[in-house]
Amino acid sequence: MNRYPISVYLAPKDWLQNTGIPPGQQDAMHIDLSGKRVIVTGASRGIGRAIARAFAAEGARVAVCARTAADIDVVGRELEGSAQAVIARAVDVTDTAGVKAFVDEIATAWGGVDALINNAGQGRGGNLETLTPEQILEHANVLQMGHFRFIQAVVPHMRRQRWGRIVEINALAGTQITPDGIPSVANRAACIAMAKSLGMSLPKDNILVNTLNMGWIDTGQWDRHYREMPAGTPRDEFDEMVLKVVPLGRFGKPEDVVGMALFLCSEWASFISAASIDIAGGMGGQIAYYPTLKREFNERMAERLGAGSRGG
Fold it and tell me: For the CA atoms of the chain, what is the radius of gyration?
């Protein structure tokens, strides 16, 4: 059973005649990704895993990678039940030769690459007083250079077939600057700028590049942030504080990202490139206030509970 059905009723079909959508699919907005050759990085958990499962459910050929072989092998076995074909490998995104070898393996096995979901990389906090230049560069090597390595490896294959879709998974902190978390702010902003630049230079080869910028998507990191609070902090009060800056009033789920990723890799998005799309429940500039909210909440909890922060 398809876990990610994408179908809405559309009325007259005359406007669809020049879209490239096959006539048999013009009665409904059917996103046909069957047989597409898709790479998803950082796919062992969270957003990457959810997107990989969605492509598999749509009948795509799905190649997934992550740092740890044991973790990505589990995902690979999971996808075998629905994907047309699966390749799962441990890949270090800081290893240029290793990234190219992985992409070339897929292109050789499947005759090309149609879509890249560039998801690898996590956020990193810190400020002027707590960071070293080397720590920011280390984060950049994983995040912006890791994304660049994969794009550089897939584009030649996409150019040969004159068709490609690249979706960058980024963070809202790259578009809405915050007063803390310098590595994430700087490196996400660089990734978004790169996506926009490539989204302008690659369409001549029918390769479209777009970026999705995440808000508070709960992939487990909020458990870690909660543990930074003083011991005994009520979890419901912590969540209430975090969600004050989210107009929708809830955390996003990895599955909330899936539909847009599938759409951007389809023919329905054939005139969209260099777009920057926030998936953040309405949150925008409010994110800049979050470090202050968090600090004040921490101080109130410490005073109320008579305990220091247990996370540093």
Answer: 21
